[in-house]
């Protein structure tokens, strides 16, 4: 009875040690690996922390708190950049130069995004495949959503639109291109007898069809605006907002149906991806309550850093003559997707292309059908004219990218040449937006409202 009680107590307070109690974990350490020094175990062992099995609740609570902190800090190689978080907050609060505030908070959000992803995955492990998949889908692009909401509150609609489009393009072209390129080079076969990597063509076609639909949701408002402008209509703003908000509701309903399709009714089509995920999956290193607390703290920190980052953009644009479109399209997506990009490339090198495709295209669908329409609704609620009418150049770049990706993945195979093609298109788009004058796109929404008033 005493042993059972002690084991139960240990399990309750150490749910992160591979599902074992502290005592069994320690026993396993003695058997399976050499004894580590106390200092190394205390600071660098993410499977055990001395004090977790203490009879004192104060010691046990302190040890568990440190263990959660340690596991979080050791969860990713980019977490050394977390030192930028307090510096970035101090830079914003003390009114340092806009370049310093933007740069420091830019690098501060990268590790916060990685920690956010880690905490989400830890919770998902405890919820099962269906609820875990839904949680990952919901929080998969949380950083982009937080940054965009902050920018939307400040009226930076061009930044919001560009960052949404940039997130989609970086996943479709940059991430997928790197997966195809590096994976294809590693698994190219012998000279004269080259091989290709393969993935589920059915899944690729389904997701590309959804991306084509999202492309149409941007082309239609742009076309309507062009027609109204040609006819000299004075009510372009109202028409575009009505169309955008109605389209946003439809896209959110379709995204919900896609989640049900993927996670419930037709999950068999995604079996290969699920198997790859299962192979990568490890035991949870912290309990759901601890992971939830990490999620809350990191979300608050991301919101603070994002507020300072967005607040410095106008001054950056004025001083550097870089357009807001380039900042939103190229720079900001790097912040939220860095850790995710590395994950996709690593699994592609391991020839697990279904998982790599799931990360790249899946994240694009979340942005196109979930986050962007949601931001339109948020703008509607808070009185900001966020719409699906993007600049014509942005819309064309998106539509062409979706077309190229669809042709590339339709056979369910990939090679390094196709990866180089996707990367080449991404670089062309990046150079085009970099070469764009700072005032070419900025203020388009203001001009639209001004002409219609």
Automatic annotation (TrEMBL):
Keywords, sorted A to Z: Antiport, Calcium, Calcium transport, Ion transport, Membrane, Transmembrane, Transmembrane helix, Transport, Vacuole
One GO molecular-function entry: potassium:proton antiporter activity
Membrane disposition: Multi-pass membrane protein
Compartment(s) where it occurs, according to its Swiss-Prot or TrEMBL record: Endomembrane system; Vacuole membrane
Region span, Disordered: 1-24
Family to which the UniProt record says this protein belongs: Belongs to the Ca(2+):cation antiporter (CaCA) (TC 2.A.19) family.
Any one GO BP annotation for this protein: intracellular calcium ion homeostasis
The protein's name: Vacuolar calcium ion transporter
Domain Sodium/calcium exchanger membrane region as annotated: residue spans: 98-263, 294-434
UniProt xrefs under InterPro entries: CaH_exchang, CAX-like, NaCa_Exmemb, NCX_ion-bd_dom_sf
Function: Has a role in promoting intracellular calcium ion sequestration via the exchange of calcium ions for hydrogen ions across the vacuolar membrane. Involved also in manganese ion homeostasis via its uptake into the vacuole.
Stored Pfam families: Na_Ca_ex
Primary localisation category: membrane
One term under GO cellular component: endomembrane system
PANTHER family: VACUOLAR CALCIUM ION TRANSPORTER
Superkingdom of origin organism: Eukaryota
Transmembrane regions: 77-96, 102-120, 132-152, 164-186, 207-228, 240-261, 289-313, 325-349, 356-382, 388-409, 416-435
